[in-house]
Amino acid sequence: MKKHFILTALSAIILSTGVGAVATQQAQPVQATTWYVHHYPYFVTHKVRLTKNVTFKKFRFVIPDYKSYVAATKHLKKGSIVKVRKGGASYPWFVTGHGMKYTSHYGWTVLNQKNWFTTNLKTKVAKPKKSSSDDGMLVVIDD
């Protein structure tokens, strides 16, 4: 009985000092999470102008990835301004703007298109000026 009392008292003292040490600890805020959310390249969007008439596809994301399917399509004309961001391994770009929104379940993307946007947002691109000596005539010199 005496041995049981000593073991109980000793375990109570050990547990009470451990709980006191844990109770005095304060949680430190994690600084890395806010940087990750706002600066990671996949979350950075860029405003771009379309250089062609483009058809966008709205995908429903399903796990596994090969079961994802097209839920809707939308056509935009050349010159429209949209926002794009990297699409990761499965999709080339994700697009937002003109009623297209990206959520965790749906995303708008372009398939099988090359060179469909430019980062130059000016409405008209300046054409190179012709020099006064260039009158469009072809001159052939015989020797």
Note down, in words, how this protein is organized.
It contains 2 helices and 7 strands, in the order H-H-E-E-E-E-E-E-E. With 143 residues, it is α+β, with helices and mostly antiparallel strands. The longest helix has 23 residues, at 2-24. The chain is elongated, with a radius of gyration of 32 Å. The model has no long low-confidence stretch (mean pLDDT 75).
Brief descriptors of the model:
143 residues, single chain, alpha+beta
User: Residue share in helices?
Assistant: 10-25%
Strand content: 25-35%
Oligomeric state of the chains in view: single chain
Estimated radius of gyration: 32 Å
Write a brief caption for the model.
With 143 residues, the chain is of the alpha+beta class. It is built from two helices and seven strands. Strands 5-4-1-7 form a four-stranded antiparallel sheet, with no helix packed on it. The chain has a three-stranded antiparallel sheet with strand order 3-2-6, with no helix packed on it.
Chart the SSEs and their pairings:
Blueprint: H1 2-24, H2 32-39, E1 46-50, E2 54-60, E3 69-76, E4 81-86, E5 93-96, E6 106-109, E7 117-118
Antiparallel strand pairs: 1-4, 1-7, 2-3, 2-6, 4-5
